[in-house]
Design brief:
The protein has 262 residues and is α/β, with parallel strands linked by helices. It contains twelve helices and five strands. It has two domains: 90 residues, Glutaredoxin, CATH 3.40.30.10; 119 residues, Glutathione S-transferase Yfyf (Class Pi), Chain A, domain 2.
Amino acid sequence: MLDKIYKKGDEFPARGNTNLLRFYSSPTCPFCERVKLVLVAKNIEYETINVNLVDSPDWIRERNPGGQLPIIEFGPDNKVLYESLIVCQYLDEAYPETRPLQSRDPYEKARDLIFIELFSNLWGPASRPFFMSADLSADWPQIVNGFKKLDKLLADKKGTETFLSGATQPGLVDYMIWPSIERLPLFVDIAGHNGADYLRRELPTVNNYRRQMSGNTTVQSAGLPVETFMENMRDPYPPRLNPDVLRVYSQQNSPFAYRVLM
């Protein structure tokens, strides 16, 4: 059961303990999941404020003018940070007493950031049809092409290592791409194919990596609520009753959809 999800018009919940980090999140947002993974991996105590991103309260924009999540707020002076990768890097560096998630080698750290960017640049076009298209079968060749490029990119980076971090446990680079890898077979299911079979046959590196990551205790604790995700994604396509009215294909809590709705 999720806690209350705040929407426009809801009163701001005052911070009762300013020493407790506050995490403004949205239940199915992959960028918020990145931060949750790092919070759990670093064993950071925090409270979560869940927000309806499409109909968010005004006090979210007071903290991030772009209105996007995730956001963290911390300290007696209410410091605020946003943008998932920046937030995650900050958390890793601000809490050095627990296992570092980034390489201590500046070059390797920079290479990991390049990989995250390359991965995001491939994932965006491959996953976009699932949010924008009324006919996934027509877009399937584009989707397949993107997924296969992701598999190769992952293979080139990972090599023979279990995790992208090169360590015995996942690192920041692993947690930054995990929300996408986690959703990949669900997207394949939605497109009318068997996600598990498809990964096994066509995306061997993704399949093996997903299996390894799924066994990680942080991932098990902080991962995506699959039922909630599928409920949001599997609604039947509604016919256009008025062709003169522009239709926006959106997903609740998607930051990209929110840009258009603005």
